[in-house]
Amino acid sequence: MSDDNETMIYRTSDLYFSAYLCAVDISMTTTENDKNENGMKKIVFVFRVPKKDFDRLKAQFFGGSGTVKVQKYVQSLKNLKSLCFV
Q1: Distance in angstroms (rounded) separating the CA atoms of residues 48 and 27
Q2: Confidence of residue 1 (pLDDT cuts 50, 70, 90)
């Protein structure tokens, strides 16, 4: 039986998708340091996402139909960018 409260851990270095997840009140749990294919440092944002919502949120964002308050998205983007330089 599936539990509607089940969550999954989702890792991404996509700053804009991460800002969207924050703007729709998905909890970011931590950040991790990683390296890209050129050996350059990159930040990975780690989220705890309800399993039942993840596919819908991803499809809405990448399909262009996701909606959030612009100020909340911009503030989320600024907050995430500041984490990249800590």
Answers
A1: 6
A2: very low
